[in-house]
Please model this.
Amino acid sequence: MSNRDLEDEPKFETIAEEFMAFVRGPELVIHNAPFDVSFLNHELSRTDRKERIDDACQILDSLALARHKHPGKKKQFGRALPPLCGR
Model:
């Protein structure tokens, strides 16, 4: 994804409320969650919202689960999800 891909898309601050309503409550599955959670929390801090993503929902890190279930293949799971899915 490049900046050009995002040129015509709305800024996060304009969709933050809708996004938080979408993720609030259920479990959110994220591959390499620490990276994405910190990124999302940073973007949320730039809005008027005081809420953090990890306060709105439970986070499940699929990368951590894959590494736990398949020790020794950690580099493979860090690059992409297809190896985890058997593709």
The helical segments are 3-6, 12-23, 33-45, 53-56, 62-69, 74-79, 82-85.
